[in-house]
Specification:
- By secondary structure, this protein is α+β, with helices and mostly antiparallel strands.
- The protein is about 20% helix and about 45% strand.
């Protein structure tokens, strides 16, 4: 095999892996996004029937610790853990992800994200969002703050523990573009719980990542029955949703040819859009991702729910 061909083969696979991790949990490798949920016409489907046995459903405050494993072409490529604490009036979300094995040695990336805020059970209003993303030896951290209404007020960004240089008008542009937006973890929580409210996943999130604005669109594809296997602990009914990212503003030509946009274009050519399956793990529990798949010419890139704990 030609060396360049081999590099393209591995690089393309890694690209799909990183994009999968990005959209499964939505904090992307382009760093933090802001999202505002816009419900669309709900699909008419039967409600989900959770059958995963994780013990007695928690009472009062609901805490979930979830583990995910991502595989690509037979390689264990990435692990992630998602912790959710849901109270009657507040919430906390924490996500950690890291590349693994052969892919991890070629593309060493890890990230930590966390958000806390207030909720009335239907709307989630962030107070503070923090993140740290490490690529090889480069570390980027971001802190975003919000007022009591959950409205974005400021962003602080560090690169290797030093303030990252910003254009003079960056703060004003951020306040303008991020108007009525929330952090990405809150946006993810809101769009997933919308499935509980509408019995479908047809919805659209307006997203701002600090430079670009785009829409994340979920399209309901009905209900599938997933079976437990040696990779996944989940078994039962799950709602199947296709995902589309739609550029709106701030995109350069190169942005449309790399990262998630490149992967999406590839899947569109194969007429197999990225797909996520979501479900509650117990009766009246929060909706969470239980599987995600991206079709690739190198084979499927799949994320499995591999571990659960509710308390």
């Amino acid at each position: 095999m030609d060396k360049n061909t081999g590099k393209r083969h591995v690089g393309g696979k890694a690209l799909a892996i990183m994009a999968l991790a990005a959209l499964l949990f939505l904090p992307s490798c382009q760093h933090q996004a802001q999202a505002r949920l816009i419900p669309q016409e709900p699909a008419k489907h039967d409600t989900l029937s959770p059958v995963l046995d994780i013990g007695k459903a928690p009472q009062g405050r609901k805490n979930l610790d979830l583990d995910y494993d991502v595989y690509a072409g037979g390689f264990h490529a990435l692990t992630a853990s998602l912790a959710m604490g849901l109270g009657k009036a507040d919430y906390e979300i924490e996500l950690e992800a890291k590349t693994q094995g052969f892919i991890g040695s070629l593309f060493p990336w890890k990230a930590h994200y966390e958000t806390n805020g207030k909720t009335d059970g239907k709307r989630y209003r962030p107070a503070l969002h923090q993140s740290e993303s490490t690529w090889k030896k480069s570390v980027t951290s971001v802190e975003m703050t919000y007022d009591k209404r959950g409205v974005f007020t400021s962003k602080k960004e560090l690169e290797n523990n030093k303030p990252k240089a910003q254009p003079r008008d960056a703060a004003v542009k951020s306040l303008t573009i991020a108007s009525d937006a929330v952090d990405i973890l809150t946006g993810t929580m809101q769009i997933l719980q919308n499935v509980n409210l509408t019995d479908g996943c047809n919805s659209k999130a307006q997203v701002f990542d600090g430079k670009r604005r785009f829409n994340i669109i979920f399209k309901d594809m009905g209900i599938d029955t997933l079976r437990k296997n040696r990779y996944s602990r989940f078994q039962g009914e799950a709602r199947k949703c296709n995902i589309i990212v739609e550029p709106v503003a701030g995109f350069k030509d190169k942005d449309k040819k790399r990262g998630w946009m490149a992967v999406q274009e590839h899947t569109l050519e194969r007429d197999r859009l990225p797909t996520i399956w979501v479900a509650p793990l117990y009766q009246k529990g929060p909706i969470v991702p239980v599987r995600m798949e991206i079709a690739s010419e190198y084979g499927s890139v799949v994320a499995h729910l591999s571990g659960t704990d509710a308390k």
